[in-house]
Amino acid sequence: MVVGTTRYAYLGPEATFTEAAALRLPAVAGERLDPHPTVHAAIAAVRTGEATGAVVPLENSVEGSVNATLDELIRGEALAISAEVLLPVTFVLMARPGTDLGSVRRIVTHPVAEAQCRTWVSTKLPDAVVELGSSTAAAAVAVAESAPGADGHPYDAAIAAPLAGERYGLDTLAHDIGEDAEALTRFVLVSPPRTPTAPTGSDKTSLVAYIRDDHPGALLEILEQFATRGVNLTRIESRPTGNGMGRYCFAIDFEGHVADARVGEAMMGLRRVCADVRFLGSYPRADGVRPPIRQGTSNADFRDAAAWLEQLRG
Ligand SMILES: O=C(O)C(=O)C[C@]1(C(=O)O)C=C[C@@H](O)C=C1
């Protein structure tokens, strides 16, 4: 296989769900992929210029947002999201060959995976403890590297992607142990700020809104900007800004592209009512959905209204 020269960072080690997601992104597949131990390290590689972009998890359909990623986007030097990918996530309990299920006492995995497999673990292995690691693949490595009975390598089993078991020589003790067989994780390609790709008709836009001062209705004012222009939100998350107790901002994803009139008008509204708005990017939706445009909110409707006003003003 020929490997390109452009470097992309991802949450590693090899065989994380993030690596699988990276391989599905046309911009990234075929390029050089560098694993990093944490989301922070993968994104730091972008900020220092060592990598062109980083593939990181942003949101899981069961567990919600991945705060480590969200906080990198909210704080520090500005970044952009240039692509997204949705990946089905199925979890396997894996152990060194020869381990039997009944002897599993200590399990290691990523917090997002732990949340999705909690019911299975508490039902099938009620005496087992689950410890948290930096990724599901790192958990598989930790298990693979612990010779049975060796001191300092306390894990009996890992919860990870089926691919991690194959990559690190572990046997599967139980398949599909996640609560939701349909679970999906949304991954994004993060790069330095850039001009968005052209609108496709099936786009999403992400931004962070920082409220001006703590006052009644601050969130309502933000939501109004979208509601009156017919822009549908797909996610809104409040996160601390990191600058003092009670200071929050809102990370918002919505349907449409910054080039769409209704999106542009909503963003201008935000700019007027917020202390700051950090535009993260407009990019094609991974699910390919083309949302309906409500009456009165198409580009033509906004153009017509602007022309009408011009005419009134003479
Ligand atoms: O640990 C991994 O394999 C990852 O890619 C991270 C991650 C996440 O943070 O959401 C990705 C998908 C799974 O839901 C669990 C963990």
Automatic annotation (TrEMBL):
Question: Which keywords label this protein?
Answer: Amino-acid biosynthesis, Aromatic amino acid biosynthesis, Lyase, Phenylalanine biosynthesis
Among its keywords, does the record have Cytoplasm? Answer: no
Q: Per the record, where is site Essential for prephenate dehydratase activity?
A: 185
| InterPro entries for this protein | ACT-like_dom_sf, ACT_dom, Chor_mutase/pphenate_deHydtase, Preph_deHydtase, Preph_deHydtase_CS
Instruction: Reply yes or no: does the keyword Lyase apply.
Output: yes
Superkingdom of origin organism: Bacteria
Q: Which GO terms describe its cellular component?
A: cytoplasm
Reactions catalysed, semicolon-separated, are: prephenate + H(+) = 3-phenylpyruvate + CO2 + H2O
TM ranges = none
Domain ACT as annotated: residue spans = 207-284
Pathway the protein takes part in:
Amino-acid biosynthesis; L-phenylalanine biosynthesis; phenylpyruvate from prephenate: step 1/1
Q: Its Gene Ontology molecular function terms?
A: prephenate dehydratase activity
Q: Name one GO biological process term.
A: L-phenylalanine biosynthetic process
The first-level EC class reads lyase
Q: What is its EC number?
A: 4.2.1.51
Q: Which residues form the Prephenate dehydratase domain?
A: 7-192
Q: Could you tell me which NCBIfam families the record lists for this protein?
A: PRK11898.1
Q: What name is this protein filed under?
A: Prephenate dehydratase
